């Protein structure tokens, strides 16, 4: 039990901004670690997990891709096991399917071998496959070599988020968009919502995802980064029988994106994608969604122009796949030659909240920073859903330390 002062009429001890899976995991971890701590979660949408959490491919990542010792590597491997256990405990749909990472060109073979080494460093068992062995797992997939990662799976992350909200015992307030924040280090924070409500707390936790940099600045903290939104466009496979499980290309190590992949979900359907194109709004799920203020803010950030200058060739390819189904199909056919353009049915897109530094560096690891009476989660794209339970514990630990010292 955290002892709190009663001199001020606080509405809660910890106020979490953001009702995605990381915010709800944080609320869950706080109340489990310090029973009796009063937690309020403000979510601007009408329900949980409406953005990154509910618009991804539903993959429980193994942690094989991430730099050894990084938060992503540690939390993904640990989080994957915990996520499977959590889903089993609460009856949430999930499956441990394993996945293939397939090299289709000779130039990819050294990178594939590098992933084998990285997997071993991260404690993840992998099986190396020759071209003929790929068919043991995926008869329709072709490649020069592959690795099989047995700990990868899929689950219903929206179901996980709902369960975290319920089990946390927190006061979850939907339709509560944050408009203003008044932080006074000697007292706490007061947040004004779009409905005109004021919520007073001793500590604020910022898990606002696509808007986390804006919330940090409203709090009075300069985050040193900006969210540059990248839209990932998906298709569904009209012939799902072509794919048994999960099939990925060898990723380009220069980017935090994993490339167009094939994912058999818990519903039996197969998602194909995503690509990665600039979004014209924080929640720009199609080319027709443009928010001039948000777009202007993205263009005003020097890092955005640095990305464009350095990676225009990569970006051009992604844009071509966005506007041309033929080009997207060609990317898929590298892994799955039997697929045709008619097999690809447009599906819901997602937007990745990618933190970018002033010099154009794409932040590659989870990024958590603290300010007076505040903890900010500033970079938590994939594999944050997989890693949400350990991320939530880490954010909760920092929030409770801040609360104790307040």
Could you give a short description of this structure?
The protein has 406 residues and is an alpha+beta fold. It has helices at residues 21-33, 71-90, 109-121, 134-137, 157-168, 212-219, 292-300, 302-310, 312-323, 325-333, 388-405; strands at 12-17, 39-43, 59-60, 94-95, 99-103, 126-130, 145-149, 153-155, 171-174, 178-184, 188-193, 198-206, 225-232, 235-237, 246-249, 261-264, 270-273, 277-278, 344-346, 350-357, 367-371, 374-379.
Structure description:
The chain has 406 residues and is an alpha+beta fold. It contains eleven helices and 22 strands. A hairpin with a 2-residue loop joins strand 21 (367-371) and strand 22 (374-379). Helix 1 runs parallel beside helix 5 (157-168). The radius of gyration is 21 Å and the shape is globular.
First and last CA, distance:
15 Å
Largest β sheet strand count, sense and barrel closure: 8 strands, mixed
Strand content: 25-35%
Instruction: Report the total helices.
Output: 11
Number of strands: 22
Structural class: alpha+beta
Shape: globular
Helix content: 25-40%
Q: In terms of quaternary structure, what is this?
A: single chain
Q: What's the mean pLDDT score?
A: 94
Please tell me how large the radius of gyration is: 21 Å
The parts where pLDDT drops under 50 for at least 5 residues are: 1-6
């Amino acid at each position: 039990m955290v002892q709190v002062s009663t001199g001020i009429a606080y509405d809660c001890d910890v106020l979490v901004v953001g009702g995605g899976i990381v915010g709800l995991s944080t609320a869950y971890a706080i109340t489990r670690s310090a029973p009796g701590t009063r937690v309020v979660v403000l979510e601007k949408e009408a329900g949980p997990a409406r953005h990154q959490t509910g618009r991804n491919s539903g993959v429980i990542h193994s942690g094989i891709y991430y730099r050894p010792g990084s938060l992503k590597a540690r939390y993904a491997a640990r989080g994957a096991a915990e996520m499977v256990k959590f889903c089993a405990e609460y009856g949430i749909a999930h499956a441990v399917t394993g996945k293939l990472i397939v090299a289709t060109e000779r130039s990819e073979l050294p990178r594939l071998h590098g992933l084998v080494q990285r997997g071993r460093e991260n404690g993840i068992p992998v099986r190396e496959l020759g071209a003929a062995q790929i068919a043991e797992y995926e008869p329709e997939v072709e490649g020069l070599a592959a690795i099989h990662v047995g700990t990868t799976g899929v689950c219903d992350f929206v179901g996980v988020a709902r369960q975290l909200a319920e089990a946390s015992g927190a006061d979850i307030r939907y339709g509560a968009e944050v408009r203003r924040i008044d932080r006074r280090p000697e007292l706490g924070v007061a947040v004004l919502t779009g409905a005109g409500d004021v919520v007073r707390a001793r500590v604020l936790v910022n898990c606002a995802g696509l808007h986390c940099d804006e919330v940090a600045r409203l709090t009075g903290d300069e985050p040193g980064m900006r969210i540059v939104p990248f839209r990932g466009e998906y298709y569904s496979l009209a012939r799902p029988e072509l794919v048994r499980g999960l099939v990925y290309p060898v990723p380009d190590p220069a980017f935090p994106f994993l490339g167009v992949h094939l994912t058999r979900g818990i519903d039996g359907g197969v998602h194909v994608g995503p690509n990665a194109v600039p979004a014209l709004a924080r929640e720009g799920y199609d080319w027709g969604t443009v928010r001039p203020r948000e777009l202007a803010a993205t263009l005003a950030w020097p890092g955005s122009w640095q990305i464009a200058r350095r990676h225009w060739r990569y970006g051009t390819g992604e844009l071509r796949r966005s506007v041309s189904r033929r080009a997207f199909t060609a990317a898929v056919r590298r892994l799955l030659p039997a697929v045709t353009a008619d097999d690809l049915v447009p599906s819901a897109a997602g937007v990745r909240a990618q933190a970018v530094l002033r010099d154009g560096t794409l932040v590659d690891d989870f990024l958590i920073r603290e300010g007076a009476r505040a903890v900010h989660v500033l970079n938590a794209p994939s594999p944050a859903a997989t890693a949400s339970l350990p991320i939530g514990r880490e954010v909760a630990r920092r929030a409770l330390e801040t609360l104790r010292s307040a």
